[in-house]
Design a protein that fits this description.
Blueprint: H1 4-14, E1 25-30, E2 38-40, E3 47-49, H2 51-62, E4 66-71, H3 74-82, E5 88-92, H4 96-101, E6 102-117, E7 129-132, H5 136-143, E8 150-152, H6 157-163, E9 169-173, H7 174-183, E10 192-206, H8 207-212, H9 216-228, H10 236-256, H11 259-264, H12 272-285, H13 292-298, H14 301-311, E11 317-324, E12 329-332, H15 345-348, E13 351-354, E14 357-360, E15 365-366, E16 370-372, E17 377-387, E18 395-404, H16 405-422
Parallel strand pairs: 1-4, 1-5, 7-8, 7-9
Antiparallel strand pairs: 2-3, 5-10, 6-9, 6-10, 11-12, 11-18, 13-14, 15-17, 16-17, 17-18
């Protein structure tokens, strides 16, 4: 006799049937993966904590919902979501199987996945790969034609298998490995690493939930950027790399286009009321269609030059915006979501109004990593001032440039890997 019906029936009794009920507190499952998700023992039972848990709670609260988050093995959580036994499950890579049963949110976390190994990196196509069973890494490997040699129940087992040469490669998130290192400082096994990919992870909500609670997912997605921001800051080394790469790109662009001249050739509204009026109309129509003003700006020679230069960067540059000293757009490489940029950090961190007029506040601003829903990728925004020749600190406007984080930091990781090959990184191996 098959035990599957019995196991399924037992699971039904263990999982609260919250989906059909009219409730304000929603039931979400995730899995143990410090520092993103972990159990915090408290009186009355363990409480889920961690970076991604904080993001989920924050965005759901701002969306008008309370959540009860429980930790569960990944395979069991997937089973529960696919059978609509739970309202949602996070943090997971996009999955065709889950897409059939649930609605996916915008990303709630961005992980950095590495190969970890001894000595020289083996060829992943022939190597014996170890991974946590049911994990996002295992799902991704199988979807991309890799068959794991060993699956384990917890991440701390993987360094031990590498040490014993039972596997050649372990696929893990960087922060998860760093957490193992912090918890086991006495472990002295040397491992090397090589960056593989940035992995955006999502919340899945079952379709019955989405149908019975219209608008929650939309509001949740809208709140995510603010709730994720503290977890999406660049490290000091990454910031320096991005700053250097951005300055090189901007220098190249300035050799192709006179940015100050382009500002003066754009449309001008002297009245701030007129700017806000145009911005309201612009936002009402974008991104589906441009307003007459947007069409005019897109047709300008400067906008066409920005678009050509962006296309030459091979996907590294995602957007270029040029504004006057009021924050109003005068040129753009593609249709922006709004006309007036003066209320956004990319302008406010560069420009400041003084008694003498608009002046430079700083020479460079780099945003945290943000998810761009229109392009479905993570990006950062870099903005710089376009200075007036006289007075010395005067401001013509600003240039804002979007950079695809995957491509930008891939360059950084290649440099970091070259350095690490000279001085191997000390990482933990559990006994």
């Amino acid at each position: 006799m098959s035990i599957r019906p019995v196991a399924a029936g037992l699971l039904f009794t263990l999982i609260p049937w919250t989906v059909a009920a009219d409730h304000k507190t929603f039931s979400l499952y995730t899995f143990d993966s410090p520092p993103y998700q972990q159990a915090n023992p408290i009186p009355g039972g363990p409480e889920a904590t961690g970076e991604t848990v904080e993001t989920i709670r924050c965005a759901m609260e701002h969306a008008g919902a309370q959540v009860n988050i429980r930790l569960m093995p990944q395979n069991r959580a997937r089973f529960a979501l696919q059978r609509q036994l739970v309202d949602g499950y996070f943090a997971v890579d996009p999955s065709p199987d889950l897409d059939e049963a649930a609605e996916i949110s915008h990303p709630v976390a961005l992980e950095k996945w590495y190969w970890f190994y001894l000595g020289q990196r083996p060829d992943p196509t022939t190597a014996k790969i170890g991974v946590v069973g049911g994990s996002n890494e295992e799902v991704w490997l199988i979807q991309n034609g890799f068959q794991p040699f060993v699956t384990v129940s917890s991440t701390e087992q993987l360094p031990a298998l590498l040490k014993r040469q039972r596997i050649d490669l372990a696929l893990m998130d960087q922060q998860v490995m760093e957490t193992l290192r912090e918890d086991s400082p006495a472990l002295d096994q040397t491992l090397n690493r090589e960056f593989l990919r940035y992995a955006p992870l999502h919340l899945y909500l079952n379709r019955r939930f989405v149908s019975e609670h219209p608008g929650v997912l939309t509001r949740f997605n809208r709140q995510l950027p603010e709730c994720m921001e503290q977890h999406m800051l660049l490290s000091a080394d990454e910031y320096q790399h991005v700053a250097g790469q951005a300055r090189g790109l901007i220098k190249d662009l300035e050799q192709r286009l006179n940015l100050a001249q382009a500002i003066h050739q754009g449309p001008v509204y002297d009245s701030f009321t007129e700017i806000l009026t145009q911005d309201t109309l612009w936002q009402a129509l974008a991104p589906e269609q441009p307003t007459p003003l947007a069409s005019e700006i897109l047709g300008l020679p400067a906008s066409q030059a920005l678009k050509r230069w962006q296309d030459e960067q091979g996907g590294l540059v995602t957007e270029l915006l040029l504004t006057d000293n009021k924050g109003a757009l005068v040129a753009m490489s593609q249709l922006s979501s709004d006309y007036w940029q003066g209320d956004e950090p990319k302008f406010q961190e560069i420009a400041v109004e003084t008694e003498r007029g608009m002046e430079r506040k700083s020479d460079l601003w780099i945003s945290p990593i943000r998810y761009d829903a229109s392009t479905r990728q993570f990006q950062i925004i870099v903005s710089v001032p376009i200075p007036l020749k006289e007075p010395n600190n005067g401001l013509e406007g600003i240039l804002a440039m979007g950079l695809a984080i995957e491509k930008t930091l891939h360059n950084y990781e290649r440099l970091a890997r070259a350095r690490s090959e000279q001085v191997p990184m000390e990482l933990p191996v559990a006994e």
